[in-house]
Amino acid sequence: MRLILAEDSTLLREGLVRLLTEEGHEVLAAVGNAELLLKAVAEDPPDVVVADVRMPPTHTDEGLRAALEIRERWPRVGVLVLSQYVEKRYATELLTGETEGVGYLLKDRVVQVDEFLDALERVAAGHAAFDPEVVRQLLGRTTHTDLLARLTVRERDVLAEMAQGHTNAAIARRLHISQSAVEKHTNAIFDKLELTGGEGYSRRVLAVLRYLGS
């Protein structure tokens, strides 16, 4: 895939360039701030942008703002946002938009190369990829605890995997259950959470993500 990286840490940025190049991907640009990121995307839109949430000059939310602008101006470009910590406000901003082709990972997850590359592939394919710790904390803060209390332990496990962006087949492998069991749990989850009207897997996952982010 064709990628653009935005990370102000030179060491991490160059490490990602080397990793992705060795994996056979093409890094179109590797920049250190949001302004250069937007300029690079405008010149040659990539398949996916990987961007740090906090970048110069204020090191607050420049990377996130750039990511949201990219999603608005170039909706076909996937965005994988990296953060040092779980920043619920930023995660929620991503969750409440269109989550197809969007990811949010903690930087610690980048060290786990296989998980990072898997998330990147999912974002490039138009799916969601949210860090398990982000999902755990959002599950813990949702105001809909009365509805979540209806779920069984296994249904909560399936919901957490869904919120990370995994397909039914992937959830079956990760939880060591059959795909038909996943589908059964998924239907039960939507019934218990009173989520109706979605068409297709991605729309149902989007509904759950928005629900958890509220």
TrEMBL record:
<keyword id="KW-0804">Transcription</keyword>
<feature type="modified residue" description="4-aspartylphosphate">
    <location>
        <position position="52"/>
    </location>
</feature>
<keyword id="KW-0805">Transcription regulation</keyword>
<feature type="domain" description="Response regulatory">
    <location>
        <begin position="2"/>
        <end position="122"/>
    </location>
</feature>
<dbReference type="Pfam" id="PF00072">
    <property type="entry name" value="Response_reg"/>
</dbReference>
<keyword id="KW-0238">DNA-binding</keyword>
<dbReference type="Pfam" id="PF00196">
    <property type="entry name" value="GerE"/>
</dbReference>
<dbReference type="InterPro" id="IPR016032">
    <property type="entry name" value="Sig_transdc_resp-reg_C-effctor"/>
</dbReference>
<feature type="domain" description="HTH luxR-type">
    <location>
        <begin position="144"/>
        <end position="214"/>
    </location>
</feature>
<dbReference type="InterPro" id="IPR000792">
    <property type="entry name" value="Tscrpt_reg_LuxR_C"/>
</dbReference>
<keyword id="KW-0597">Phosphoprotein</keyword>
<protein>
    <submittedName>
        <fullName>Response regulator</fullName>
    </submittedName>
</protein>
<dbReference type="InterPro" id="IPR001789">
    <property type="entry name" value="Sig_transdc_resp-reg_receiver"/>
</dbReference>
<dbReference type="InterPro" id="IPR058245">
    <property type="entry name" value="NreC/VraR/RcsB-like_REC"/>
</dbReference>
<dbReference type="InterPro" id="IPR011006">
    <property type="entry name" value="CheY-like_superfamily"/>
</dbReference>
<dbReference type="InterPro" id="IPR039420">
    <property type="entry name" value="WalR-like"/>
</dbReference>
